[in-house]
Write a structure and sequence with these properties.
By secondary structure, the protein is an alpha/beta fold. 41% of the residues lie in helices and 14% in strands. It is built from 11 helices and 8 strands. β1, α1 and β2 form a beta-alpha-beta unit. α1 crosses α9, α3 packs across α4 and α9 packs across α10. The mean pLDDT is 91. The structure holds zinc ion.
């Protein structure tokens, strides 16, 4: 793994709705890890770009963005094509969502398409590798997998900019197998959730902040090295497919990073010091 580009700035955008997430703590954590990089906590991405819209071409208004977001909606997880026709009310819904006035109700969006769309609205000065943009969202993201030819829900999409989905952290890594067996057996979700409490992250879970730190580190490592993940389940860069793995790598592990990533982190901090 090589160190390619160390950014001068890490810009973190808060989600449309904070919920239980302690955004201040997350940004404090990044500052602690990258002592020589300027970390800036920003408002929700759309609140941020609104300031630039009046100066931009007229078509780049909020309705236009909302329309493009609708086009990133996945209609069928077994089909690569996203939404083509837009129903009345959908643009309005997305506008309200951008402003944090409504909550997601199980809609899956193509994460790569959203990242590309968002990239278009990043101010020109910040549209280069000196700036690492990390956008938190409440939208549920999916990416297309050519192997089994279907969309899979994801907690994060690492690109320029990177997206981290709060909904995805809860919904994408699988809950314990027994959870689903009980569910298929007809037990009520509330009862099963109570039974397996602690073994998965839920929406009102205080541990969300701690877990989100790991996803932020993956996004930053992706930016710097081109590789977000590690094979060590005890390292924060582990790509968890199960909730229990996620809890191991982000909370229960005795160390934060494996030896290799610990060394890389030191090297990144040293290089920036030069
Ligand atoms: Zn590692």
């Amino acid at each position: 793994m090589n160190i390619y580009s160390i950014p001068s700035h890490i810009l973190v955008y808060s989600p449309e709705n904070d919920g239980v997430l302690d955004f201040g703590e997350i940004n404090g954590y990044i500052r602690e890890k990258f002592m020589n990089i300027k970390v800036e906590a920003r408002e929700n991405f759309f609140e941020f770009i609104k300031k630039f819209i009046s100066e931009e071409a007229e078509k780049k208004n909020l309705n236009y963005i909302a329309k493009r977001i609708v086009e990133a909606k996945i209609i069928d997880v077994g089909r690569k094509e996203c939404k083509s026709e837009i129903l009345p009310g959908e643009i309005e819904y997305e506008r309200r969502f951008m402003e944090g006035k409504t909550k997601s109700v199980g809609i899956l969006y193509d994460g790569i398409k959203l990242s590309l769309l968002y990239r278009g609205f990043i101010p020109y000065k910040e549209k280069n590798w000196n700036y690492c943009h990390i956008i938190f969202t409440n939208r549920l993201l999916g990416t297309w997998d050519e192997n089994d030819r279907r969309y899979h829900a994801r907690a994060s999409v690492y690109a320029f900019p990177s997206l981290i989905s709060i909904t995805g952290i809860v919904e994408a890594p699988a809950k314990p197998r027994e959870f689903y067996l009980d569910l298929y057996a007809g037990k009520s979700v509330d009862i099963i959730k109570e039974e397996y409490r602690g073994r998965f992250i839920d929406y009102d879970d205080e541990r969300l902040t701690e877990v989100a730190k790991g996803y932020v580190m993956q996004a930053i490592f992706f930016h710097i090295t081109g590789e977000a993940f590690c094979n060590d389940v005890n390292c924060r860069l582990f790509n968890a497919h199960w909730q229990e793995e996620l809890i191991t790598s982000q909370i229960k592990s005795k160390y934060e990073f494996c030896n290799m990533h610990k060394k890389m982190l030191e090297e990144i901090n040293e290089r920036e010091n030069e």
